[in-house]
Amino acid sequence: MPETLESFKAKFPQVWAAYEDLKNVCDKGGPLDKKTIELIKIGISTVMGREGGLVAHISKAKKAGAQNNEIYHSILLAMGLAGFPSTLAAFAVAKKHLEG
Fold first, then answer.
1. Which residue in 14, 43, 74, 99 is a FRET match for 60, CA 20 to 30 A apart?
2. Cα(69)–Cα(6) distance, rounded to whole angstroms?
3. Do 49 and 93 share a domain, yes or no?
4. Which parts of the chain fold into alpha helices (H)?
5. CB-count burial class (<10 Å; 0-12, 13-18, 19+) for 4
6. How many domains does the chain have?
7. Residues 20 and 36 in one domain
């Protein structure tokens, strides 16, 4: 995914800049701290089945101070919406990135 993302950014720099601006406004538009925002995005990535997003937001959550158990809890919270197979797949991705 990173290679695809870099290619997209190079081909459509104005679109990428507008997306980044929108994302930043949304992230900073409320009272949630960075760690909480990233934990929510982990849950969203789980529900949507977005492995690349899941990996990116796990990394950002860790940098924002999230503990492994908080990340796993974010994945578990998505089960009611995502179902067991999607939750299990997200757990596998998280385990790989958190525990090697």
1. 14
2. 31
3. yes
4. 2-11, 13-28, 34-48, 51-63, 68-77, 79-82, 84-99
5. exposed
6. 2
7. no
**Integer Cα distance of 24 and 43 in angstroms:** 19
Per residue in 45-59, pLDDT tens?
Answer: 999 999 999 999 999
- Most distant CA atoms of the chain, gap in Å: 39
pLDDT score recorded for residue 2: 75
pLDDT for 3 equals: 87
For residue range 10-40, list pLDDT tens digits in order.
999 999 999 999 999 999 999 999 999 999 9
- Reading the block at residue 99, the tokens are 């525990």
Q: Are residues 39 and 78 in the same domain?
A: yes
Label residue 83 left, alpha or beta by phi (over 0 means left) and psi (-120 to 50 means alpha).
Answer: left
- Rounded Cα–Cα distance for residues 70 and 60 (Å): 13
